[in-house]
Write a structure and sequence with these properties.
Layout (H helix, E strand, L loop, with lengths): L5 E2 L7 E10 L9 E11 L4 E6 L7 H12 L7 E6 L4 H6 L23 H13 L5 E6 L5 E11 L4 H14 L3 E5 L6 H7 L3 E9 L5 H18 L16 E5 L5 E3 L4 E5 L6 E2 L4 E6 L9 E4 L4 E7 L3 E2 L4 E8 L7
Parallel strand pairs: 4-5, 4-6, 6-9, 7-8, 8-10
Antiparallel strand pairs: 1-2, 2-3, 3-5, 7-9, 7-16, 10-18, 11-18, 12-14, 12-17, 13-16, 14-15, 16-18
Helix pairs in contact: 1-6, 4-6
Length: 337
């Protein structure tokens, strides 16, 4: 199959190789130009293929730091199988520090399975699903809240398992990753988790803080958990693998229909709940204020579902449809598997 993206490195060659995926991009200042997507392949012997990606959303910085550090720190003698690392997967977005690509407004994690001859972000999605994920056993795609959202600490996510056997496997891997919370959620065909499932790979996401900042403790937890997971799968060994995971995770579920609260007007929002709070359906979540109409009473936003507040909007100005809160509900017992 012909792809418009060309890799500078041989993804099948043993050893450590670092270079760029070349995404052709013809513009006025550079008629025959290409965009450089950084990539590393570290391969030795037999074993699983493990992908670490970050920068799917360009304003999420924690993962870019973790992935870049792994590119420097991992050597071939530590690897049993192959580790592929991409710290700026949607390079145009990561280079600009924006959630979506400035070239096509593409949100990479909403464009799978991609289009081989489409816009730049569609082409990246197609290459990831049909070339990289086709090789993979595991992928960890590192995310955070970005500029507009703030997650409560370090979190990990996976698709709802399809049967008991997959559930036991996924729960074991989440325990090995060991971030404080693990969220299970329903499939969405345009996300990288669904793309991985189509290619028979297991995908885990992180949500590491956010608000356009980097928190030292969250960063350390994310790196420790990822390295411990890589050791658990057998792809990584040696001194880089921590003795333990960062935490014993609380398993939770996210309901796409009821676990989000949205602004219902344009204005300035006042939160009536904070990260970590337990809330109930019908409970007031926020007030929307209207300083340009100072005599107008604020509008109340209520929670549609019950659960724990795991994420909140990071900025005060809102428009109708902006996400204010995300909830998750505890699932008891499954982490005892």
């Amino acid at each position: 199959m012909l792809h418009t993206i060309k890799s500078e490195i041989d993804l099948d060659a043993p050893g450590k190789h670092v270079g760029y995926l070349r995404l052709p991009h013809s513009v006025h200042r550079s008629a025959y130009g290409w965009l450089p997507i950084p990539i590393a392949s570290i391969k030795r012997g037999e074993g699983p293929v493990f992908i670490v990606s970050a920068g799917s959303h360009g304003d999420e910085y924690e993962g870019q730091i973790i992935a870049s550090s792994l590119m420097r720190d991992i050597s071939p003698d530590m690897v049993n199988g192959q580790i592929i690392i991409l710290p700026m997967l949607n390079f145009p977005a990561a280079d600009a520090g924006t959630r979506t690509s400035p070239l096509d407004d593409g949100n990479l994690n909403r464009l799978f399975p991609g289009v081989q001859s489409g816009t730049p972000t569609q082409v990246i999605a197609h290459f990831v699903e049909h070339i990289l994920l086709a090789k993979a056993d595991y992928i960890v795609d590192l995310h955070s809240g970005g500029s507009s959202l703030l997650y409560d600490g370090a979190n990990m996510m996976a698709l709802e398992p399809r049967d008991a056997e997959e559930e036991a496997r996924v729960i074991g891997l989440l325990k090995a990753f060991g971030l404080p919370r693990a969220f299970l959620y329903q499939p969405n065909s345009v996300n990288i988790t669904a793309a991985a499932r189509r290619q028979n790979a297991l995908c885990f996401l992180t949500e590491l803080g956010g608000a356009g900042n980097v928190d030292k403790a969250i960063l350390q937890q994310g790196r420790q958990g990822l390295l411990h997971l890589m050791g658990f799968t057998g792809v990584l060994s040696g001194s880089l693998v921590p003795e333990s995971a960062p935490a014993e995770p609380q398993l939770m579920s996210i309901d796409r229909l009821t676990h989000y609260a949205y602004a219902n007007h344009r204005g300035i929002w006042e939160p009536l709940a904070q990260l970590g709070d337990e809330v109930q359906a019908g409970q007031p979540a926020a007030l929307i204020h209207f300083p340009d109409e100072p005599l107008r009473e604020p509008q109340v936003v209520t929670f549609d579902g019950s659960g724990q507040v795991i994420c909140k909007r990071a900025t005060a100005r809102v428009k109708r449809g902006d996400c204010l809160f995300q909830l998750a509900a505890k699932r008891l017992g499954l982490l005892d598997i």
